[in-house]
Prior knowledge:
Chain A is an alpha/beta fold.
Amino acid sequence: MSLSFYVHIPYCIKRCGYCDFNTYTPSELQDGATLEIVSNDYIDAVLKELEFAPQQIVPTIFFGGGTPSLIPAKDLGRVIDEIKKRNGLTSDCEITLEANPDSVTLEKLESYIKVGFNRISFGMQSVMPHVLQVLDRTHNPANVEKAVSMARAVGFKSISVDLIYGTPGESLDDWRQTVEAALALDIDHISAYALIVETGTKLAAQIKRGDFAMPNDDLMAEMYLLVDQLCQEQGMSWYELSNWSKPGHECKHNIAYWRNQNWWGLGPGAHSHVDAKRFWNIKHPTAYKQKLFSGETVIAESENLTADQKRDEAIMLGIRMREGLLRSDLSSTQIQTLSTYGENGFVEMLQDRVLLTPTGRLIADRIVRELTF
Amino acid sequence: MPAISLAKAPQPASTNPAQIRNFCIIAHIDHGKSTLADRMLGITEVVEARNMRAQYLDRMDIERERGITIKSQAVRLPWRSSIDGQEYILNMIDTPGHVDFTYEVSRSLAACEGAVLLVDCAQGIEAQTLANLYLAMENNLTIIPVLNKIDLPNAQPDKFAAELARLIGCQPEDCLRVSGKTGDGVAELLDQIVAQIPAPVGDPNAPARALIFDSVYDSYRGVVTYVRVVDGHLSPREQIQMFSTGVRHEALEVGVISPEPIAGKGLGVGEVGYLITGVKDVRQSRVGDTITTYNNPTKEALSGYKDPKPMVFSGLFPLDGADFPILREALDKLQLNDAALVYEPESSAALGFGFRCGFLGLLHMEIVRERLEREHKLNLISTAPNVVYNVTMDDGKSVRVTNPSEFPEGKVAAVLEPIVKSTILAPAEFIGTIMELCQDRRGILLGMDYISEDRVEIRYDLPLAEIVFDFFDQLKSRTKGYASLDYEEKGDAEGNLVKVDILLQGEAVDAFSAIVHRDKAYAYGVMMTGKLRELIPRQQFEVPIQAAIGARIIARESIRAIRKDVLAKCYGGDISRKRKLLEKQKEGKKRMKMVGRVEVPQEAFVAALATDADIEKIKAARKASQ
């Protein structure tokens, strides 16, 4: 068995209005502090946590956040080196960096390549200024193009952008312009997510106050079908509900999640899955560091999956993927349920497997509910 | 105090009828009847002060909580009149106080020679009291007008004395003034009962005739039957016979209530008491029937016996289908004490298995439902109540319809619906509002009278179906709660009525069918289809919702197919969260009912059928369970 690693970088210079991730700005952690101060011994803590992980060979490492590109390459490189030393990396090991298009330079990107990164994912979200403004994003849309060409120039083998649709005020045409702009870049992979308004965020408060209105489900559905269609036309095919790529550029790290392989999340609030056991760390970076430096565990909670839960998870995750569900893994009642959806055009019933159609992907959760109850 | 101890008082079975006074109290809910009764129990010392509790005679929790009497009682009160110094036996017969129980009231009245008309002197007479007063006058009862609650700061005894005097044809100063709360005037009232109400008259040597005016099931003793002896004598160990059925029973025990049961040697002419025969079902001992003796039976029954006739029907379904046997058992048990309750199993495609129940009226229905839910811990859905229709077909066949699903297909020649004669009492300022409401509900104005300077009595013929719908709530809200309503049956009349079906994807949902006036069919259809469109979640296909009369569609809505039900992101930390959400949703899924291929959450049925009050109740229950 192999073991993928996720490395959480819980820092951002500014929190975006829609974000509810476990991330902190320096001033949230310590009044008047700089990023250097708050992140100073963070990598030391992560390396301490690494000591608890099993020593299986590593096919993927993913640095997410937060904003990993805020941390200098030499620091992130220490984590890669240590994992390599301890566990060993596969020859085609995929090492991804999530990056803010505003915070990269040619030199910086070169330095990330040098420490071992070979895949980069930029938060692009939208090209429409009014959409970025609602999302409370700071970057200049033109920076994305620059960042992508620099990343290509320094040798990243796989380049991805993240897009968000369904932002209040975004029209179907706004969204078309965003997707077309993304596809015009020389990229290999696109993730497109419907905006989820999480409770407790600034955006949720704005919507509650009536500043913004969420688009209806029908528009969201049209937006999804549009990105799917435009990607397919450009030779980027879907391989997971919200992900499209050129052949061979699927994100191996994310596939590890969806195939229920073993993965270890390093960092505060990070989740892990090892041999049918799920566990997750305490959330606050300061507490996380303190515990590790005094030799304590940082696991907050864990759960051992029952056979039923494992089966349900396999359906819940598998159905979102291009390969769909194997008929041999399904009961006759489940096949029956899926056939009804087939008649209504949501599901494609193949000889050996069952796949979601584009409209079916849009109601995947509903279908999962019917299959797992 | 002119009380007499029970032991020294005239004894049951040997009391001279000349010493007996049988009376009842006619009053509206809240006008203080139970408090006055409590005070009478205290003043005659049949209940010792230390044993006294409020609403002593009301036995059921519901009675005490709602402050209303559902079943009547009779209490024997010994009293020495301070006018003539003689000993008397006063039998107080407590009548039920609601329009649904008019028949029971009429039997209680038939057991008396006089009635105390009790009116709250801060509120004045109410419609229902007026109806019962008329009933008492028709029975030739002596009426003693009494103004209660004279201790209240907002009491207007002079105003309401004038009102009462006008109604019963006496002088305002003839109205007694009492306070059940302080006891003021209660002794004088008892003296006046002796002085004004005639003693019962009967033939002690004739074959026995006793009127059943109440019949109560007691889980320890079986049915306790309350009687008033008119002629002859009833003794324990004697074979008695029910006149209507001819069924014979042994009188295991004969006694009086004072206010606890005291077994005795029997009951003579004019006496009021109870007997126990060991039967287990009140339907074998029906209110209004005549009891005689088997060995020397009477040839002539006392007049006025009627079978209780259900007027309002509704389907009761357990929210959890597994509770059906509990519901059956609960209804069986309730029926032991409620001869008017009828039910038969019903199966609804939408709601599963339940019972079609017949009730005397809306309050009766509410009480039954509340007792089922409270005493048997059931959660019930009830369908909209409806009345009994008689449908005549073109071929001359006629069908009795107690459920919209029984409404016949094919050419209908005529539909008959029950009509009631209703009486509304209200301040004069609301005349316009009330007439508008009655007109809107297909009412026919019969007449209007001022009962005092600023209060009117308005009489309308109304279809019972309109009253059953939400007439009373509307009346109350449009008159700020000041109007009161009473009604009595007045036979059937032809109505332009149609059955409106509600179809989901072309399939009629039985629970939502209704029989309505043709002019209101469209409004009902639009209301119901609109409501369901909001309540039923989007499905994997488009679902048309239609309202139809026969094959003709009169209203249409549609629930568009679901477009989006997915969370876009599903990475490491999302997986547990997502699975837990699924597990939680499993519970909700269990509460879905399938109508054809359409999944309808149970809440949608409840919300579509429920009244606003029901919805509040459901919300409260949900909150409490969280």
